[in-house]
């Protein structure tokens, strides 16, 4: 009750502040007489005192799902349907998207990032269920750049603290190989190129396993290796008719895009097979090359475990042995004891004269591109005296400054007159 | 609809995989032999404690050749550290014991402080040459990471006119539309500096802490000679990058399986494995060729310590056939 006011009609002191709709009024509670009325409209100065609260600072954001989040969730569901994923995947992906949206960094991100986030959530879901989906596929479907995708993907995995398993290679081989259009004759695929799916799948799997064992898969994009393995498997199943077909033509026939590194993976795989062939008695006499070895791939794959063991020295044990020799006997014997057995075996192999290749990743077998300069030991303290002459060399002389200013002015003049007469 | 028609490279594999609803293929099919010494576990198994216990046991067996003392010390420290780690566990998804105590199998904890840790403002008496950390010869890797880059900042303590600096210095470039700082370079030590109008400066490219400090002082002297009252306040090393080579190939797929809380390996994106070590807080890039890049350190000792921590882990992935 406001102090000091009295109703002019009945004289009571019971005045109440009440509002009639949006108009504040001072009303006598005894007789109902309106003592004063508030102003319906606000003046300019009044409005200046009003405070606006931005949407992001109000609680409205937390109470309802924003339009862009709704759009994002719809896109997640659409993407899951396009990829024909099982229904449980959809719910998981939607949950991840909602979880990500709770972080302010994601809420305030650009629309492009939110679109890429849709793909990230779907990819994480697929990975966790061992569904082989490559990032390239997602990027194509989203019309997104792989760089943008990778940045958002790494960020979201870290932000949500998720454990994302690696791409399952065996599953990827099966899905990828099934997408090759070589299992039925068609106008573009002659009969001699048609192949049985199961045979091709099993042989491709064996070739990819071989590539994995011989360090051709670690650190590289998996798809080009699988393409090369599929090509070799297909060729080896009917070499007489298919040796003339090149990798590029094969991919065109099969209606599959040829990834750029696939040809170098193919060469690496053929080199491995050649080395293995050297260990088979009945192939040694044939003097195989990269084309003719394809005919014997079935034999090589049959005995691949023994052949790899015989054809390649353990590159790691070899390097250990070299290290031991270099460091001499001064070092502790503790470490040497473990490798003593294997290194002596290597040395005896070398003495025999056979020189099997080292089983190492190709990057370690190539000669270094440039000689590493040995780091020189510098005796810099950080507190030395800095001579004036050394600093002077970095400063322009006054004449140079004048020349530079003149040149700048001339350039400005030239720019401001675009079409000199 | 033939989806494969319109899909560019790598956009394959849209058909549903066979047996899609069955549980995932155990990762240690004969396809991926990861050698002896590591207990294979499928990815979905969340009781990662069993792998770590197994590995602990195996590593301890290996080290039984060495002195008993060190083993006991290790165990005590592991317990202490495991207890500490449990209380500061960052991963909510895994149990606290998911933090691998394996990091502390290295021997550096039992050794004296590394003499390689040079203080930032050394007295003229201390030797400046990089010294090999004094770990016992039989346990140390014998490899010292080389520093490749040092990033430091210093405050010149006065507002600068970048246009004047760019005009009167020979080694400066300034393009305000591209970047709001002057880029200045000196030849000795070979470094680059970004000088901002607020007076703050970033110095990059030096190969040691002392070189970084000397280079920053030279830049400050250049700015002084250009007529600004430049001082040399709050010199601080912000980041150090080192690299080294363990000289054997590493099975990155195996490493990411056993240390999944710390590792991130996406061959589709980057050929190396990104290992985020918790103590010390260093990020390591590990490549299949055995080359390791260590970054994120504020002092040299962190790089050495991180490498000594990772070396036994990497050695565990060496024998693969």
From TrEMBL, chain A:
Molecular functions per Gene Ontology: TBP-class protein binding; zinc ion binding
Region entry Disordered, spans: 316-391
Pfam families: BRF2-like_C_cyclin_rpt, Zn_Ribbon_TF
Amino acid composition bias (Polar residues), ranges on this chain: 375-384
GO cellular component, one term: transcription preinitiation complex
Keyword Zinc-finger attributed: yes
Complexes and interactors: Component of TFIIIB complexes. The TFIIIB complex has two activities, alpha and beta. The TFIIIB-alpha activity complex is composed of TBP, BDP1, and a complex containing both BRF2 and at least four stably associated proteins; this complex inhibits the transcription by pol III via its phosphorylation by CK2; YY1 facilitates the TFIIIB-alpha complex formation. Interacts with TBP; this interaction promotes recruitment of BRF2 to TATA box-containing promoters.
Protein name: Transcription factor IIIB 50 kDa subunit
Lineage: Eukaryota, Metazoa, Chordata, Craniata, Vertebrata
